[in-house]
Amino acid sequence: MKCRVWRKLHAEEARRFDQVYELMGQTPGLSLGDAFGVLQSGMTVAEFMARKERTQRKAAIKQARGEVDNAVVAEFLASLIGAKSEVSVVLAERSLLDTLVTEEPIAFTLERTGRLEKLQVVLMARRADWERLLPGLERDAKLTQKPAAVARQPDKRPYSDPRAFLDHLGDTVKLVLRNGITLKLPLMHVGRFDLLLGETGHEIFVPLHALLRFEPDTHAAAPADEA
Question: This protein's superkingdom (predicted)?
Fold first, then answer.
């Protein structure tokens, strides 16, 4: 079929192609598929490409989480529930003493407090372990006074990809949390959404969303000087 005949029979589709090629001519590097997407969405090129980038980041985070085994972290939480252990739950500006009853994908249920959204939790540990650790903690004064907010979109948080921590398993690491608490502890396990620090039987549970800064504790890792 000749082009002019096709254009006559499919005038609306031909008009869309004309718009797409015009848009591609105005926007160097824009692919055919993206140009169609811009027209169909009614967005500007900048808006469409920003949405596409967000979608790709979200997909990458979902894939990254799926590549990490969450069994150890799940077992830790199940052990707290099964033993009815009294836990300290640290939030941005206060702490709770309670007993963990259930874990849901986005929330914990505590015996006295009730349902608590996970995004509110900065860390959690058995009461005795947290009270032992508390006196020696460092704190960032500015964050203590004004804790950093948590972005609801994982791709906008400082740390969402758990794989970044896997190379540091067994190392002492330094974590600065969003309420200013600074932890320097061995990294025991990495889950899809959380870290376990400390030692077996004395674990400190830290959600990735609570992290602002992370670095290996190079002073702790440095070998002793030879005689």
Answer: Bacteria
Q: Which residue has the higher pLDDT, 44 or 3?
A: 44
Average pLDDT, the chain: 87
State both tokens at 178.
């969003």
Rounded to whole angstroms, what are the CA distances from 47 to 38, 42, 50, 52?
Answer: 9, 10, 5, 9
**CA–CA distance, 176 with 164 (Å, rounded to integer):** 16
Element (H, E) at 76: helix 71-83
pLDDT (0 to 100) of residue 226: 42
Cβ contact 184:135 at 8 Å: no
Q: How large is the average pLDDT for residues 81-89?
A: 97
- CATH no. for 70-149+158-216: 2.30.30.100
- Phi/psi region, residue 215 (left: phi>0; alpha: psi -120 to 50; beta: rest), is beta
Chain centre distance of CA 171: 21
Give the bridge partners for 174, in sequence order: 184, 215
pLDDT tens, residue by residue, 19-33:
767 777 777 877 877
Q: Give domain limits for the chain.
A: 11-67, 70-149+158-216
